[in-house]
Amino acid sequence: MLKRKEFILGAAVGLSFAAVATAGGVISWPGAHAAPAAQAAGKLVPSAGAAGLAFAPPQGAPLSFADIFQQVAPAVVQIDVKTRVQRPAGVLQIPGFGAVPIPGRPRGGSGEEGEDDNSTTALGAGSGFLISADGFIVTNNHVVENAEEIKVKFSDGRELKARLIGRDEGTDLAVIKVEGEAFPFVSFEESAAPRVGDWVIAVGNPFGLGGTATAGIVSAMSRDIDPVGYNEYLQIDAAINRGNSGGPTFDIYGRVIGVNTAIFSPTGGSVGIGFAIPAATAKSVTDKLMRGETVERGYLGVQIVSLSSEAAAALGLPENTKGALVGDVTADGPADKAGMKIEDIVVSVNGEAIDSSTELTRRVARAKVGDALRLEVLRDGRRQTLNVRAGRRPSEAELRAGLGEDEGEQATPSAPAGQAVEGMTVTGITPALRQRYSIPESVNGVVVTAVEPRSKAGQMQMPAGTVILRANNRSVSSAADLKAAVDAAKAAGRPGVLLLVRTPNGNSSVVLELSKSE
After folding, report:
1. What is the distance between the alpha carbons of residues 49 and 249, in angstroms, rounded to a whole number?
2. Which of 218, 243, 272, 299 could form an SS bridge with 391, CB 3.0 to 4.6 Å?
3. Among 127, 226, 237, 245, which one carries the catalytic annotation?
4. In this predicted model, which residue has the larger pLDDT, 28 or 299?
C-alpha cells in the first residue's frame, strides 16, 4: 500500500502545482505550442494543427492506417487446417484431468494387435495472403505442414477449400491455391528496402480472431535467429501472436515487405518483438513453388559453427579472425571429396570473406548443384585453397535423420574411472563405455565419466558420456593426449583449449577455459 499511497500523493501535488502555474494565464509544455490565453485568464487555446486538425502527426507519419487496411484487407485470409496426430495408447483423455491411464492397458506403442488407428484429428489456424488473381496464396510451411485438409476464409465471409502447391522447410514458406478468378491480391515490394524506423502494418488471424490489424515500425534488420540459416529476418514491433503466422507485413503504401513468421516471447504472447521473412527472400522462393519447382540449394556436407574470439585465442590466432569452424565432415560428401578436414576454418568463398557460419551456409545455399566453389581455409594456422563441387542439400528431415540420434535412454554410469584433466575425469573408450553411453564404433576419442561441479567444465554443464574427439586441432585417444594438449596451451599462454566434442545432435566445438597455474 505504501507505493500506492505515494503515487496518489504525488499525483495530487502535481495537480496543485499545475493549478498554480496556469493561474497566471500562460503555460508552455514542450512540443504543445500552446498560445497565450488572450480572452480569459486560465484558458489555453490549442493550435489548429495541420489543415485544421486538432492533433497533427509528426512529419512522415500517416494520419491513420485505416485507408491502408481497407485497401489490403480483402487479400488477407484466415487458414484453417486439419491434421492427424497419434494419441498415447493406454490412456483416456478426460477434460480437466488430461491423460488418465486405463487400468490393465499398457501405455505407449500403437495399442493392441488388431486395434484400430490410434490417431486423432488436430485443428490448427494461421494466416496467408493472395498474390495472384487466380488464387495463389502465400503462408508459412509450419501452418500447412502435414495438413490433410486446408480451408481458406476470406474477409467477406466466403470459405473455400485449398490445395497445397509447394512448400520449403528451409525458409518456412509455402504456397497453397484456391480455385477461382478475379481475387483481390497484393504484391511483394522488390524495388525498395525498408529502413529501421519505417512504419509497418501487420494483418492476420491472431488467436483465430481474423481480420486483425496492428501497426508499428521496423525495429531492426537482418536478424540472424534462423536455426537453418536462410532467413535474415525483419524485426518489427507491430503486435503479432499465434495465428499471425503466414500473414503479411505491409509498408504504408500497402506493399508486402515481409511474411510474419515468429515472435520472441517469454509469455507466449506479443511483447513487441516479431520477425518477418523479407520480401526479397519470400518472392524468390514462392515464385519457384508457384511454378511447381522444388527449391534446391547447394551443399558441402559439413557441420559448422562461427569462430568465436575465445576459439581463435585458444588456437593461437588473432582474436579478430573471422570464419566458420568445421566440426564434422560428412563421409563421401562434397567437402570430404575435396579434402576438407575437421577444425578447418573457412574464411572465404570464391574470394568473398566469410564472417560467420550463417554467412557460409547462405553463400553455399545460393550455389547451384554442380557449381565450383573455391574455399579458402585456415589449417594449422596456414591458408589453403580447396575446390569443391556443390552438391544438392538434402531436406531438413533427411539431415536430422542422418545425425543418428539415439532415442534410447542412456544407462547410468558406474563409479568414474580414468585421469583427472581440468576438472574432468576422462578415459579411453572401452567396449563397456560404448555400450553404456551409446557411442558408435566409428567414434574415437576420450569419454568424460565425471565432472567436478565447481570446475570450468562443470560450469559448462558438460555431461558424463561426452566424447572429446580433438583438442586444439589434434586427435585425442587417451587421457594423456588430452592432458598434453592442455599443458601445451598453458605453456603457450593461451586462455583456453578448443575441444571438438560429440553430442546427440552432432559434433560441436567448445572452448574450455583453463585453470590458472598456481
Report:
1. 31
2. 299
3. 245
4. 299
